Amino acid sequence: MTKTNVLFVTLDQWRADHLGATGNPIIRTPNLDALAGEGVAFLNHFTCIAPCGPSRTTFLTGIYPSNHRSIRNGTPLNHSLTNLALEARSSGYDPTLWGYTDTTPDPRILGEDHEAFLTYEGVMPGFTVGQQLAANSIPWLDYLAAKGYEIPGPGYAIYHPDPAYQLPPGRHPLFAPSRFKAEDSETHWLADKLIADLEAKPSTAFFHHLTFLRPHPPFISPPEYHDRYDPADMPPPVQGATRDEMRAMHPALGLLYEMIPQSAFFMGGEGRAVDLDDAAVAQLRATYQALITEADNNLGRIIATLKAQGRYDETLIVVTSDHGEQLGDHYLWGKIGFYDESFHIPLIIKPPKSWKASGGRQVSEFTESVDLMPTILEGLGRPVPRQCDGHSLMPFLRGETPAKWRRAVHWLYDFRDPVDSLPEKRLGISSRECNLLVHRDAEFKYVHFAALPPLLFDMKNDPDETRNLAEEPDYQGVVLDCLQELLSWRMRYEYGELANLSTSDKGLVGNRIY
Questions:
Q1: Where are the chain's structural domains?
Q2: Each residue of 477-489: pLDDT tens digit?
Q3: CATH number assigned to the domain with residue range 5-510, chosen from the 4 options 3.90.1640.10, 3.40.720.10, 3.40.190.10, 3.20.20.80
Q4: Pairwise CA distance, residues 99 & 190, whole Å
Q5: pLDDT in tens, 323-373
Q6: What is the pTM of this model?
Q7: Is the peptide bond prior to 218 cis by the omega test (within 30 degrees of 0)?
Q8: Which residues are known catalytic residues?
């Protein structure tokens, strides 16, 4: 029997409404659209946490953040937990990473003075590193230097725009392209590395985890892509009220408006991201779409290689994101807080032909990032570890809908600052109180803060989340219902790997109970 190949791909900071196959009329994503046509697109898929490191920890362990507790970039991960790479390795694969997982190891094993804690960009245990792409970008920068590019400095300095570019009249300065060509971008370079490995091992069953940086900022695209989308065609950001009215809606928004800098999204940015003007917002949105199209084209090159090798049909392809991007909606940028733009992400699963799965289907049921590990392991015929909180999506791939499926999604966002304590000082709360949990179903979204007022949004009548109903007298029953649902979910999914085991006259017994 032919062993299933696995290609597990993430596009960093890719939000759900930026995919042609699921309804975006502007963006061009032909390769992703084709995958969705052969597989299943999940329309209501959500990450359980942001930012990058915690979200990747979540889908690689199958555990809710409330349980694994690696909740910030740089928060150590409990060494006792297994993960997708370790489980695949025990099944005879050599799980290989192309990109990054942003995993911080357990100091109880390495000791707190270990050099591993100088960065949050460690690698999840179990992966062989095919090519790491860290923030310092040293291997890629070395590649660019060897091709004759002048490197302006370490890390993200390469993303300053091309100094020789002549800006056309009427164009925003952010229209300027990168100084490197598309064939030399970090997206193309990383795809080349994976393609070279596929070509070097044409008959070896593989398990590849490819993590494209794009469309993560800095928002600048190569010259071949930077004019793909007209800023005039970009939908305006959601702004249900003025900045001052939004600040007054909740203390957390005021904090985020003050703390998010423009420099986090493009080189040379000054001031706060909340103050970007309409022209800048439109251009950044156009560039964001260009970066997605670039990632789509390079994924297409990998798919073409698999087809040329005759391996495509027996390859499980999973494409998703770690989290979304606000893109100026609600005057916010990045992956933060509680709005859907940061947590609603795409998911496409193209199963192997031998699975005789149902292709071209779109699933509207709620799914979560914790579901990916159980799904992939079940597809490979591996048992799902007891630690996993997620549920396998295999029934949906077979064209079925489970009788008892979740009616809501939940996510955690932690905004503590262990280094400088800025949120703690500005809000007057402790680090333990700098967090929120979201209960989000088809009708309402309830946001519970540990030490700040709650929020409630009517997702049917106000899908853009512009009006907080948490203090409205007519909605106090809804707040209570949502709070009870949130508490019940939290109780059901307390860490239970050992709780479902028991001694007996037959020894240790028990099983994985949903």
A1: 5-510
A2: 999 999 999 999 9
A3: 3.40.720.10
A4: 7
A5: 999 999 999 999 999 999 999 999 999 999 998 887 889 999 999 999 999
A6: 0.97
A7: yes
A8: 52
